[in-house]
Design goal:
By secondary structure, the chain is an alpha/beta fold. The chain folds into three domains: 90 residues, no CATH class; 84 residues; 140 residues, 2-Layer Sandwich (Endonuclease, Chain A), CATH 3.30.870.10. It has 14 helices and seven strands. It is flat and about 75 Å long.
């Protein structure tokens, strides 16, 4: 099952099981606020993920809901309204192809796919090219135009397409060009057919903890500063499970607080303070299992918990690999400038 859909189903289950009934309007105001904001954050995370689904009925249902309750009583109403959406998810999740992620490929993937599509179409004869392109929904042309230049004929009809239009065109062509790389690339993209982007503005430490706990193989971290003992402890537990954990950090006074522990337990690459390395390492991203990328403004520090910060969690292997490539480039740059 697609990772995005799996996450949505899990979030719907968490909403359904959320113990909102354990807090009443007569309880301490701080308790009410804690329950209110926790439930609100859970619903917003669900809404953000569900918007990536290709399901107009679900979108219409969500548009009718106010996901920003101001009191615990409003939260009760929201939970009741969410039950209709949860019932819809439960009714459809067992039906094949009923819930599906909206194709949303990156520009980089679209360019690669576009090149392959053009190669396939250019391999057709001049006589049949206009009919074939027209059959795929591309702008109609003439045989004379194709004879002048098959490349120009195809390129002029592909160049204006958006990434998702390129993806749809590729799906229509799948299986018809067995000697090309088209089918292989489409299969790879099918495994990542939804970016699965979730943006968080509150409880970011909790989000990081959950993603770390769910990691199975690798955790690569590049952040400017790291002073959060709780996150360090979660990473330590994952290292005991045998995960490959690598960290890139600035070698400065702020990071000196945990430097000994970090060096003891993990593979840490310290960005030096010298003339040959004059760039501030201001990245704040993490790659998990080469399929999840997290990035934003949030440093892994105690102070960051009390700032206005953001983080985005991207469930997409292609995007995660882009961040992984950047991580390796940073490691190489550090190694080159510390010899």
């Amino acid at each position: 099952m697609n990772q995005l859909i799996t996450r949505i189903i899990k979030l719907s289950e968490e909403i359904e099981k959320f113990p909102l009934g354990q807090c009443s309007p007569s309880d301490d105001p701080d308790k009410q606020m804690a329950y209110l904001y926790s439930f609100k954050a859970l619903v917003k995370r669900f809404m953000s993920s569900a918007k990536s689904l290709d399901d107009n009925k679900l979108k219409d249902m969500m548009n009718e809901i106010d996901a920003d309750p101001e009191s615990i009583i409003d939260a009760y109403d929201l939970q009741a309204e969410m039950q209709g959406i949860i019932d819809y998810i439960n009714d459809t999740k067992t039906k094949p192809n009923k819930i599906k992620a909206r194709p949303n490929i990156s520009g980089k993937s679209a360019n690669e796919l576009s090149d392959i599509i053009q190669e396939c179409l250019i391999s057709e004869s001049e006589d049949s090219l206009p009919m074939i392109c027209n059959g795929y929904g591309l702008i109609q042309g003439t045989i004379e135009e194709a004879y002048k230049s098959k490349f120009n004929y195809v390129h002029s009809r592909i160049a204006y397409l958006e990434p998702n239009d390129i993806y749809e065109l590729g799906l229509h062509m799948k299986g018809k060009y067995p000697n090309s790389k088209l089918d292989d690339l489409l299969d790879i993209l099918a495994e990542n057919d939804g970016i699965g982007l979730i943006s968080e503005f509150e409880n970011i430490q909790k989000v990081l903890k959950q993603e770390i706990d769910d990691a199975k193989f690798t955790i690569w971290i590049a952040v400017a500063w790291f002073t959060d003992n709780m996150l360090l402890n979660r990473l330590y537990l994952k290292s005991k499970e045998g995960l490959n954990i690598q960290i890139i950090l600035n070698d400065d006074e702020i990071n000196s607080k945990l430097k000994d522990k970090l060096n003891k337990f993990f593979d840490v690459h310290w960005v030096p303070k010298n003339q040959s390395f004059n760039k501030l390492m201001h990245n704040k991203f993490c790659v998990i299992d080469l399929k999840i990328a997290m990035h934003g403004s949030y440093n892994w520090t105690n102070k960051a918990q009390f700032n206005n910060e953001t983080i985005s969690v991207i469930n997409n292997r292609i995007c995660a690999e882009d961040f992984a490539e950047q991580f390796l480039k940073l490691k190489h740059e550090i190694s080159k400038n510390t010899k």
